[in-house]
Amino acid sequence: MTRLSPFNVVSLTLGFVFLYVPMLILVIYSFNASQLVTVWAGFSTRWYGELLSNDAFLDAAWVTLRVAVISSTIATVLGTMAAYVLVRGGRFMGRTLFSGMIYAPLVMPEVITGLSLLLLFIGLGLDRGVLTIVLAHTTFSMCFVSVVVSSRLVSFDRSLEEAALDLGASPWDAFRLVTLPIIAPAVISGWLLAFTLSLDDLVIASFTSGPSATTLPMKIWSSVRLGVSPEINALSTILIGLVTVGVIAASLASKHAALRAKRDEQAAARAA
Amino acid sequence: MAETVFAPWDDPTEKPLIRFRNVTKRFGDFTAIDDLTLDIFEREFFALLGPSGCGKTTMMRMLAGFENPTEGAIELAGQDIAGVPANKRAVNMMFQSYALFPHLTVWDNIAFGLRRESKDKAAIAARVEEMLKLTRLEKFARRKPHQISGGQRQRVALARSLAKAPKLLLLDEPLGALDAKLREATQFELMDIQEKTGTTFVIVTHDQEEAMTVASRVAVMDEGRVMQVSTPERIYEAPDSVYVADFIGDVNLLHGTATPSGDETYAVTWSANEAPVQAASTRSFSTGQTCHLAIRPEKVAIYKDKPEADNAVQGKVLDIAYLGNLSTYHVELPTGDIIKAQVANTRRISRRDFTWEDPVWVSWSKTAGVLLAE
């Protein structure tokens, strides 16, 4: 272990303070017994209990989860298809236009995306609700999936697909049995990205939801406008906990996979 | 009775397995294959040899079905296969990168093609075991490709492409990734497997030694055209162009003009100051026609004193390349030309006859060289 110089200690401390003090305060106050958010009145898990009996929050959480799962799944299918065509389709008519346009939503301000989707749904006469939020989230997260998947496809050895065709596989079988299993990690991270984007989206959901469907970020936002309640702190703490567990699990899994790959390579070198 | 030599290309009644008929392939403005006509026969081990970019890989990809000819026809067993997709052809390919499926075990890699033709499980298992045995991979059946060595991967790729018993097996630089020792062993293994299975092999390579070792016939290619198709011996001993003579092995080239000097013999005037050299040739040349005399270094002898020979030229030793079993002497002639003479090192190095700057005579018989027009 190297000893850190005073300068490094200061930068490290500042970094951590800026990143985590706000969250730490939120977590601490979620265990506050007092009704008043800013006054500490002893430790209590009261707000967690209240949260679980608050139907409005539970409904919003359920809506959010459904929207996130459905929209990220559709976005993954569409995004993977788009990436496949862009990387493998050769030089078809309108390819440059398509590849440029698929990345446009990445830089488009969310307000504009939300507004244009709202106008579209009104124009189509669609009742705003879970369906419209799903469609909207699919629209904007699909391009993220296609970016992630196409970067994997670019480095994918094309001869693997040719080998599958050569061995008698139909193009669909070649994709299903060879390409998809190999690019699966990219597809899964694309799905996770879309899922996360959908979970924490506030702006687009506000534009495209109707009275029947409120997502969790919308619910939190609207209740905070009436004053921060300790319940919100509890809810946020739960979310932080879930995210932390997810990140740690993912990094442990990838570390384990890297270790195993290294062991395999050493075994192969010995066998040679 | 003498054993019949395998030479279906000399038999006019033999039907070729593959026929390229006036095949041209263009990519945009670039012509990869230029009006190429070629026959390949059943059970042949056929090598496509040429520098990179000569079109050999394009030919192979057209056979596999990954490219279609722009013009002309390719026939496999009498049927035009243009337009038949890769997965419907009785042709399998061993890829340069091996293209093993990284997520499948060795066993599943080999079974991949068999599973596509809805055979029953027992038949597939039997065939996979047979292939594993043929390529001596039984011990590694349950491993994934990244868990085995490069040589083993190469054998998995071979087993996988042979599993469906194709009419034709294409090998794209199959030994490029192996080190020299392993490559040599694998060349003989490939020949052995080709003989055992009776499959027609077409190999693409830029390594002339590899092509000469494994192939029954070699096609030397350059810029989308076939320069010469023949057995390795004839390609080496009787090249029909300066390109082929120069591409295969080492060669001395003397440029000059021919004058008939007897029955199928020509005097080649190659320098104003030196006597013409004599060369036998079945190709006829007119008086004063430009010609090139190609002589292999091992057919040039080197002497201290002027020998009794058809052709002898004096020079001095400029360089000696010691290769262990052979030494190549670079002899500079008064004209500035350099003649390479190769001598087998049957004696220990301390007893060698010549050293640098020694005046020597190089000589060769009139049948040693090949007289070429271009």
Précis, in short:
The complex is a heterodimer of chains A (272) and B (374). Chain A has 272 residues and is mainly α.
Kindly report the average pLDDT value of chain A. 87
Largest sheet of chain A at a glance? none
Shape of chain A: globular
Q: How would you state the average pLDDT of chain B, rounded?
A: 89
Q: Can you tell me the residue ranges of chain B where pLDDT is under 50 for at least 5 consecutive residues?
A: none
Note the quaternary state here. heterodimer
DSSP E strands of chain B, number = 20
Give the termini distance of chain A in whole angstroms. Answer: 37 Å
Which strands sit side by side, in order, in the main sheet of chain B?
Answer: 6-7-8-3-9-10
Quick one: CATH superfamily of the largest domain in chain B?
Answer: P-loop containing nucleotide triphosphate hydrolases
CATH architecture of the domain at 46-225 in chain A: Orthogonal Bundle
By CATH reckoning, the class of the largest domain in chain B would read: Alpha Beta
Q: Tell how many strands the DSSP assignment of chain A holds.
A: 0
Rounded to an integer, what's the Rg of chain A over CA atoms?
24 Å
Q: Provide the domain count of chain B.
A: 2
β-sheet strand percentage of chain A? under 5%
Tell me the name of the CATH homologous superfamily of the domain at 46-225 in chain A.
MetI-like
CATH fold field value of the domain at 46-225 in chain A:
MetI-like fold
Specify the structural class of chain A. mainly alpha
- C-alpha termini separation of chain B: 42 Å
Largest sheet of chain B: 6 strands, mixed
